[in-house]
Amino acid sequence: MATLYDFDTAVDRRGTWCVQWDGVADRFGVDGLLPFTISDMDFATAPEVLAALRARLEHGVFGYTTWQHDDFRSAIAHWYASRYGTEIDTGQLVYGPSVLNQLSQLLRMWTGEGDGVVVHTPTYDGFRKAITGLGRELRGVPVGDEEALERELSRADAKVLVLCSPHNPTGRVWTGAELTRMAELSERYGVAVVSDEIHADFVHEGYVHVPWTRAAGDGGGRWAVITSGSKAFNFPALTGSYGLIGDPADRAEYLRRMETAEGLASPAVLSLTAHIAAYREGGPWLDAVRAYVAGNLAYVAERLSAALPELGWGPPQAGYLAWIDLRPAGVDDAELQRVLVERERVAIMGGAVYGAPGFVRLNVGCPRAKVVRGVEALIRAVR
User: Fold this and answer.
1) Closest Cα to residue 39, out of 326, 340, 345, 316?
2) What is the mean pLDDT of the chain?
3) Which among 331, 278, 315 is positioned nearest to 52, based on CA atoms?
4) By three-state DSSP, how is residue 353 classified?
5) Which of 113, 117, 141, 236 has the smallest count of CB within 10 Å of its CB?
6) 21-30, 45-54, 167-176, 258-267: which range is least confident on average?
């Protein structure tokens, strides 16, 4: 199918201070590896976003900025309405420098040291660092285990459920029924919910993302959505995230903390510019890049099926991260990483980072030629 966008031509990211390429030695101990690691893409962002950024740069004045204006709020409302069929209350919007910063702020508001914070396992390592770094107790429940979820939420000192929706690293898209059940359990046991929905825009065909605002309904209870356009449109380096907080008093307290204790009253203007352009004009680009990534994932599935059929691997429901269970192949994690790094010269995230030894997380948000190199290296290393 013809496309207006070129995702096959590689963009050289070396020397741009990016974590995935220039910082690979920080995690793997060796420079010069071909990376399939941190969760960003190798594609330039949407042309519509670039055009808006250039226009803003041409203005030349970059003074203090506010996010509380209709251009930003209405762009978000438009996105939720057009993408998710969901009407949001723009009065519930809040802003932050990043999704993880927002999570940390909410954990400070809603928990105390030693309190339990429930997450699904395997767990995004950023959650683990935020929760344990604040002195809270991380309590994991396996994805899909409803009995374990209720058991942990019912504990007297369980204060927050941190939900990754869709789930990272597995790519699981929660159904409306699953989310409603989580909302019911959280309200029953007095547990607040923080729903990180930064991967929502990358749900693949056949699956539907349900925003937490719909799952929560009018049932009350403490909840917040935290998200950003930076994941889907690949501009995390611009910083900037936003969210919705249901309770007016909680929302006011969050904003007070951000503007006083955190000193973050003025957001990054280029982030606002990028979000508005992405949500107003970037839909066609997002559809195209998601289709391209789906092709990458299909390629991975085809090659693994042919070379390592015992894995029985299939593409995730969302995202550009291939979460691969290598346990059926009887692979030793440490030896696999040694071979990948020393012989194959590639960097692929091991599952132990997410509390799941025996898995790997392969980032395929990149040109197909790079995906081919990574998959072939992984197959050789496993063999």
Assistant:
1) 316
2) 96
3) 278
4) helix
5) 113
6) 258-267
Task: With cut-offs at 50, 70 and 90, classify the pLDDT of residue 172.
Answer: very high
Assess contact for 211 and 231: CB atoms under 8 A: no
Q: Which amino acid makes up residue 298?
A: A
pLDDT at 217: 77
pTM over 0.85, yes/no: yes
Whether residue 195 has pLDDT greater than 60:
yes
Residue 247, C-beta contacts closer than 8 angstroms, at least 6 positions apart: 222
Residues 6+ apart with CB under 8 A from 270: 53, 56, 57, 238
Tokens encoding 102:
């927002």
What are the distances in angstroms from CA 111 to CA 33, 104, 189, 206? 41, 10, 15, 37
What are the b/e assignments for 341-372, b being 16+ CB within 10 Å?
beebebbbbbbbbbbbbbbbbbbbbbbeebbe
Task: Quote the CA–CA distance of 84 and 213 in Å, as a whole number.
Answer: 11
Q: Cα(370)–Cα(235) distance, rounded to whole angstroms?
A: 21
CB 41 within 8 A of CB 258: no
For residues 226 and 244, the answer to whether their CB atoms sit within 8 Å is no
What is the pLDDT at residue 219? Answer: 61
Q: Is the pLDDT of residue 1 over 50?
A: no
Average pLDDT over residues 280-307: 98
Lookup result for tokens 């994941």:
231
Asked if residue 2 has pLDDT above 50, the reply is no
Contact between residue 170 and residue 317 where contact means Cβ atoms under 8 Å apart: no
CA angle (190 as vertex; 112, 182 as ends), nearest 5:
115
Work out the angle between the directed axes of helices 269-281 and 70-84 (0-180°, nearest 10). Answer: 40
Residues ≥6 apart with Cβ < 8 Å to 40: 18, 19, 20, 231, 234, 236, 365
DSSP structure string for 144-192? T-HHHHHHHHTSTTEEEEEEESS-TTT-PPPPHHHHHHHHHHHHHTT-E
State yes or no: pLDDT of 154 exceeds 80: yes
Contacts (Cβ under 8 Å, ≥6 apart) of 63: none
